[in-house]
Specification:
Radius of gyration: 18 Å
Helix content: 10-25%
Distance between the termini: 50 Å
CATH superfamily: Pseudouridine synthase
Number of domains: 1
Largest sheet: 11 strands, mixed
Structural class: alpha+beta
CATH topology: Pseudouridine synthase
Mean pLDDT: 91
CATH architecture: 2-Layer Sandwich
CATH class: Alpha Beta
Number of helices: 7
Low-confidence stretches: none
């Protein structure tokens, strides 16, 4: 029998629970899967402390994306965070490994996204929801590139779609055109978030997955030392 791993808690206080979600785990339940979700694990965790405790999901990640997921311990805070999410989440940062050698050092991607009946997200001409993604190329070789990504909007599959549409699908992302899977997983990780809640600032970071480190070890080590830059952005 495989021993279940403990939930990777990045931050916790009386109101918040922030967890590092592994790739391959659903954030919330679907029609096909009710139990094996991050929400279920978080719910069981808080109820072990007190059976009356509750937990509320503030946002979600795709099943195959790893990284930071934020829960609230009360419904009012959850509603407030969701209502003012773009003002609360000052920085939402990801690391991505994509196919191909990205030529631009920095670029902002803007498009309007829609979802098809088969749940495929795609860009349209002003007929959808606006999605804004900024990326910076941290490293590249002849086959792959490492990108630091910040998003202004949190649309479904946003990063995956926009990168695929410029010819650089995230590795392992067969749904959006990836041809290879050298990591054995989707090459997208929610690495850092900066929050401002009730005049208090939080900078929360999730360690880069070991699969990423095998491909761009030195560049990722440098990236993980750059916390001061994010903290300065958060204080603005």
């Amino acid at each position: 029998m495989v021993k279940k791993k403990k939930m990777d808690i990045l931050y916790e206080d009386k109101e918040l629970l922030v967890v590092n979600k592994p790739a391959g785990l659903l954030t919330i339940a679907t029609e096909k899967e009710r139990i094996h979700t991050l929400y279920h694990e978080a719910r069981e965790y808080v109820k072990k402390q007190n059976p009356k405790n509750k937990i509320f999901i503030v946002h979600r990640l795709d099943k195959d994306t790893s990284g930071i997921v934020i829960f609230s311990k009360n419904e009012k805070l959850k509603k407030d965070l969701q209502k003012y999410w773009n003002e609360v989440a000052i920085v939402r940062e990801y690391l991505a490994i994509v196919e191909g050698k990205v030529s631009n050092k920095k670029e902002t991607l803007k498009s309007f996204l829609k979802e098809s009946k088969t749940h495929q997200v795609f860009s349209t001409n002003n007929d959808g929801v606006l999605a804004i993604t900024h990326y910076e190329t941290l490293a590249r070789n002849k086959n792959y590139s490492l990108l630091k990504i910040r998003i202004d909007t949190g649309r479904k599959n946003q990063i995956r779609v926009q990168l695929s549409e410029i010819g650089h699908s995230i590795v392992g992302d067969k749904k959006y055109g990836a041809l290879k899977n050298p990591l054995g997983r989707l090459g997208l990780h929610a690495s850092c978030v900066c929050l401002k809640i009730k005049n208090k600032s939080y900078v929360i970071r999730a360690k880069t997955p070991k699969e990423f480190q095998k491909m761009f070890a030195q560049e990722i080590e440098t990236y993980e030392r750059m916390g001061e830059e994010i903290w300065n952005d958060c204080k603005k």
